[in-house]
Amino acid sequence: MREFWIIFKQAFMSKAKSKTFLITTAVAVAGIFLLANITTIIEAFDDGEKEGTAIPVVADNEAIVDRLGRQLAAMGEETEFEVTGDSRAALEDQLKEGEIESFLILQAPDGNAIQAEYVSESTELFGFPMMLQEALQSIQTEMRADEMELAPEQAAALFEPVVFEQTAVSSSGKTEEEMNQARILVYVLMFLIYFAVIMYSNMIATEVATEKSSRVMEILISSVSPVKHMFAKVLGIGTLGLGQMLLFGISGYLAVKSSSAVSDLSEGFFSEMGLGNIPASTIIYAILFFVLGYFLYAVLAALLGSLVSRTEDVASLITPLTLIIVVAFIIAATGLSNPDAAFVTYSSYVPFFAPLVMFLRVGLLDLPWWEPAFAIGLMVLTIGVLGWFGARVYKGGVLMYGPSRSLKDLKKAMQLGKE
Amino acid sequence: MALDLNHVTKKFGEFTAVDDLSLAIGEGTMYGFLGANGAGKTTTFRMILGLLNPTEGRITWKGKPIDYGTSHKIGYLPEERGLYPKMKVEEQLIFLGKLRGMHRLDAKAAIREWLDRFEVPQYLNKKVEELSKGNQQKIQVIAALMHKPELVILDEPFSGLDPVNVEMLKSAVKDVRDQGATIVFSSHRMDHVEELCEQLSIVHRGQQIVEGSLRDVKRSFGRQNVRIRSDYDLTALQTVPGVRSASYALNGAVFQVTEDDTAHRLLQEALKAGPVSHFSIEEPSLQDIFIAKVGNEHA
């Protein structure tokens, strides 16, 4: 057992101390904080731009311009307008030279519909022009109502808003709003699992191949059994991976907390994203599926790494493994909008897909407890079988040198492992 | 005997890598294990280390089979460098030392002592890949010897080293032997084996063809070298009955003979040709024996 911990510690520390790892982790943590504060940052830039830039308006009726300003303010968009005497051509020139960003031409002949033209540097489909149109529309409606001299209650009846509510009926029993929140959270975590599994299983395979190609393996396995060595390695790097993920998680949490202390806006932003109140079960499942998924793929990666004699060959041998994870991710990503689909349900029990697909289902749907439990059981079983099989291949594989770049070597390695 | 290989055979499928090999190596001796490339040396070492199991036969160290329980008593230097290229020398040796059952502080002290001995204390905090091949080999030797093993297996320890380093490593290996360790080593360099080993074995295609003490091996070879130096033409001498082979140099010749009489005949014949400046009967070198035993089969 002593040797196990020595290898474990070495696998963990040599990576944890490496510059690449430290830099990647630091950059990722910085990225998380940046992302969490992105609204504050955008706001800071936006404010500087907006202030003092009133939109020039060519108008024949200044009263309407005032009303437009008030209407927009009521809609939550504070905008200043400035009536100008410049001609359209002059304003276009100013626009081209960048002195102004946009201008508005407003004509409201009595009894006729309001005619407006909004000229800006680029055509925006949504956002401000749409609000402008909406505001003008309601001004016109009000004006027409005035002309018809309606009684106040009639006017009120006319403007009474529709009661509109969206409800989704799905087997998940979650409302559309809850689904959207869950979707984003699940997507983020799913991506994290996907990314981590690929990254760490690659790390394992490369590590094993490096030890083999540098022949240090011969010394290692002369003092510790290959099986012990393999599991110590897998566990050491796995612990590192889990630590890194937890670090990301904690910094993400802290980032959200600190940014929402700075501005209420980002709190709104994050609660909208569903990160404000993360369900504990989703996090627990995420960790569970990360750990299991990692072990499943890491054992395979170690086995594959033991087959090659040169680190350059790792990439070609590990490709099939990577492809399986990619397929799992594609299924899960497709299932994000339709977690009830049959192919999602079935593939969620396949051990190689379960870390992503079952996690998706468990995160989005209200599953009976036995469904994830069943998938987890299958995964544990597969890990056991792979561990047993991998250990046998590994034992022979690490002694095998030569041009080994195909899966045919599996049999050869098994044979050698038995010798 | 300390290390016993009892009729050990190793087959990989149809291929027999080691065929009925028996070795008995006494404690505190230095044992030379010779063979051409592919003779089965590395396979034998791997079996001794317990990395491979013999198909037949038994290997024991002091009466017990070797397994991971005894591995910290064994030091191993693989044929090719086996170190982490990116790891620093000290860190690496501490790691390997701990794997062999050493404590961190003991390992540290041993590393410093060894580096001083090999005159490379400045490499303590260097990465292995920055070191020259010879210096990497020194680190490798330290890894094999630092934990004071009882059994040391050295696979080609002196290959690729300059003469100064070879002497340095040789004296280290001798010291370890003098402290009581049993050492098995393989080499292509017969002169090293001749200088260091009391006992030796030559394997060829998995089969043992020579075994015993250096003196016995030489004696039982049954040939001697007759060296004659003369300024006159000695080519006619190879027709003297009893001469097995002859090789000529600028100022003389060496003849392989089996009988002392032949040697005397050669001297007489040489004197007929002209004055002789040197005449000696020498025992055969290991190189001669190796080439005669292994080279003949190649031919």
UniProtKB/TrEMBL annotation, chain A:
Keywords for this protein: Cell membrane, Membrane, Transmembrane, Transmembrane helix
Recorded GO MF terms: ABC-type transporter activity
InterPro entries: ABC-2_transporter_component, ABC2_TM
Membrane-related topology note: Multi-pass membrane protein
Positions of transmembrane segments: 21-42, 184-209, 230-256, 283-307, 314-335, 341-360, 372-391
Domain of life: Bacteria
Protein's cellular compartments: Cell membrane
Any Pfam family: ABC2_membrane_3
Cellular component, GO annotation: plasma membrane
Domain ABC-2 type transporter transmembrane, chain residue ranges per copy: 19-391
Protein name (Swiss-Prot/TrEMBL): ABC transporter permease
UniProtKB/TrEMBL annotation, chain B:
Alphabetical list of SUPFAM superfamilies matching this protein: P-loop containing nucleoside triphosphate hydrolases
Domain ABC transporter: 3-230
InterPro entries from the UniProt entry: AAA+_ATPase (IPR003593), ABC_transporter-like_ATP-bd (IPR003439), ABC_transporter-like_CS (IPR017871), ABC_transporter_ATP-binding (IPR050763), DrrA1/2-like_C (IPR025302), P-loop_NTPase (IPR027417)
Keyword annotations from UniProtKB, A to Z: ATP-binding, Nucleotide-binding, Transport
GO terms for MF: ATP binding; ATP hydrolysis activity
Protein's UniProt keywords contain Transport: yes
PANTHER family tied to this protein: ABC TRANSPORTER ATP-BINDING PROTEIN, ABC TRANSPORTER ATP-BINDING PROTEIN NATA
Sequence similarity: Belongs to the ABC transporter superfamily.
Name used for this protein in its record: ABC transporter ATP-binding protein
Organism: Bhargavaea beijingensis
